[in-house]
């Protein structure tokens, strides 16, 4: 048993310091006060001076209170009984359910040995066209969702949790407001996905150190389930709150600040979590999607800037949509050739035409006269935004590809596009006896939206 230290050298904010030997970084300790016990974690070791972050805060702690080190880092229970449960950032049940104490596992540890990894080659279907068609999510990928405050990034995460074709979801919330936490709970419960999900939720009123542990809790539990053969999708929101917690503790520790006050090891701290994504050679996988909010929509902010060097692309959320030009999945080529042979052509061709539409829209707003080709592009852009980019559209990859051809045929002649002749012969929609292509106005259901959501596109452009 470890020696009990009965003298606290200093108390600064929620950080206490004691003099001790043989203590490890991130080791847990109990602080015994007159009110009971408080859990603390080692966050700095300088010779024999040990700094600990107290989970519940330092209020009520005096310099004469006892500190006992527990000889192990933070642990979390692991079992099938965790499914459908909601826990705090320290692994304690938040849902008023029974505590789980069996099969405790450490939440810290290195990334998986590269020899045990396989090259990513499987797609995760989400039934969201802007992901499945244009930036496919790949098993074991690590992707951030770059967003600004006010964008529906939590709504997007909830939709992915409900629709993603994976075995289980682990949701980690860092610095959430209470209504955001309840939104996730209600959305997954109503959608029938709560029984395959595990929540680790840290709210804005909880101790800062618990927010730092949320990603580690999610990934440690996810790794154990992946080793059992499960395909696990880890959803984290918001990693900027995680980085801000790192900064706050670094300031308390009087560390020399780096860019905008963040600690100098910000890159390593983020990489330590993102690199846990893996596809095991003989088991399951971990795929990570993490929201990163950008203050002032500044992609050069230290958090998104460092994140971009670690991850394999990003989804850029802007104006309530996944922006096609800012988003990128660097692993999509690994799976696009294994879906349908027109997948890559639709992906490239529609984005190229949408880029031309954006140029035409700019010309229109400046008062330039619109040519017949410009009018076709304007109609195409409106259809593309409402039937492909809109996050409310829920259709399979195959239906989304078919809808892509329908949108193209609604707006252009086949010879006006750059698609290969063999693809046009096989996939270009056939015209009716009236020489009109079946369109959104005729059959709105083919686009995966409700009848009342469809308006006559020519009226929009007039």
Please describe what this structure looks like.
The structure is a single chain. This protein is an alpha/beta fold and 462 residues long. Residues 438-462 have low confidence and may be disordered. The protein folds into three domains: 4-72, Thrombin, subunit H, CATH 2.40.10.170; 76-332, Rossmann fold (3-Layer(aba) Sandwich); 343-461. Helix 6 crosses helix 7 (302-310) and helix 10 runs antiparallel to helix 11. It has helices at residues 129-132, 153-163, 178-190, 208-227, 239-252, 266-274, 302-310, 333-336, 343-365, 372-389, 397-411, 421-427, 457-461, and strands at residues 4-5, 10-12, 15-19, 27-33, 36-46, 49-54, 66-73, 75-77, 86-87, 104-106, 123-124, 137-138, 142-147, 168-176, 197-203, 231-237, 278-279, 285-293, 313-318, 321-322, 328-329. The chain is elongated and about 85 Å long. Strands 9, 13, 14, 15, 16, 17, 18, 19, 20 and 21 form a ten-stranded mixed sheet that branches. Helices cover 33% and strands 23% of the residues.
